[in-house]
Design a protein that fits this description.
This is Enoyl-CoA hydratase. The chain has 264 residues and is an alpha/beta fold. It contains eleven helices and ten strands. It has two domains: 196 residues, 2-enoyl-CoA Hydratase, Chain A, domain 1 (Alpha-Beta Complex); 50 residues. Helix 1 packs parallel to helix 3, helix 4 packs across helix 5 and helix 9 runs antiparallel to helix 10.
Length: 264
């Protein structure tokens, strides 16, 4: 795993190209260290995760992660928890996460990509849910991720057939935001990361939290939750939306439909 922190952006690259960036127990430990470093640095507002070579990630390293540990239940459960715990940390990151899907993205690799807030893929990226071919179900949150991103018919089609699909199809069914030609992927994600890193971090995190919560609420409860988080955000930012952004808007110093305000 390679980590690079560039001011307000952090870039994680899974670095096992000979294994299509399959996730081994060591890689899971390395991911914890990377997230520790990002948290310790404190300024990163955006995390971009991608894979080296022709793959995002081929999922779990079945030999190192499962075959080497499954006969020892305690060891297997410890290893599984280490894997799941860094994925929880990624999902709950106090900022925005983006997956840059550059090639093979199957099984657990699809889980990692899907747990990110945004996903941009190469048009020719290869996605797959091959668990049916092993006579098992997608676990560790993968079924949950698919159910929360993909419409039922499309989800069950790929879950039950195990067929591969490309980046364009992934965008069509809602698994990724959009696709670009592979040669343009890195520059596209780099520009997107810069754009989002320039936004107010408190507001971005609040938007994430409110979105996730309100999907499980009725309308009236959702309005109450939104208002509570609105005033919490206003306090955390010292009313920046009112005293800075709205003041600039009243002077026609920026157009919110096209650009952001200029923080003081």
């Amino acid at each position: 795993m390679e980590l690079r922190i560039d001011d307000t952006r952090a870039f994680i690259e899974l670095n096992r190209p000979d294994k299509r960036n399959a996730m081994s127990p060591q890689l899971h430990e390395d991911m914890h260290k990377a997230l520790d470093a990002i948290e310790d640095q404190g300024d990163a507002r955006v995390i971009v995760i991608t894979g080296r070579g022709d793959s995002f990630s081929a999922g779990m390293d079945l030999e190192e992660f499962i075959l080497a540990n499954f006969s020892d239940p305690d060891a297997f459960l410890r290893t599984s928890e280490r894997a799941l715990s860094w994925m929880r940390r990624l999902k709950n990151f106090h900022g925005v996460t983006i997956s840059e899907v550059n090639g093979w993205c199957v099984g657990g690799g699809m889980l990692v990509a899907g747990l990110c807030d945004l996903s941009i893929a190469a048009e020719d990226a290869k996605f797959g849910l091959s668990e049916i071919n092993f006579a098992v179900i997608p676990g560790a949150g993968l079924t949950w991720m698919v159910a929360h991103h993909v419409p039922r018919k499309a989800a069950l089609y790929y879950l039950l057939t195990g067929r591969l699909f490309d980046g364009k199809k992934a965008a069509e069914i809602g698994l990724v935001n959009y696709t670009v030609p592979a040669k343009d992927l890195h520059d596209e994600v780099d520009a997107l990361a810069s754009e989002i890193a320039a936004k107010n971090t408190h507001a971005a995190v609040a938007i994430k939290r409110v979105y996730e919560r309100t999907t499980a609420l009725g309308f009236d409860e959702a309005v109450e939750w939104e208002m509570a988080k609105f005033f919490e955000l206003s306090y955390a930012t010292r009313q920046e939306w009112l005293d800075v952004a709205l003041r600039q808007f009243s002077k026609r110093e920026f157009k919110p439909g096209k650009e952001g305000y200029a923080p003081d």
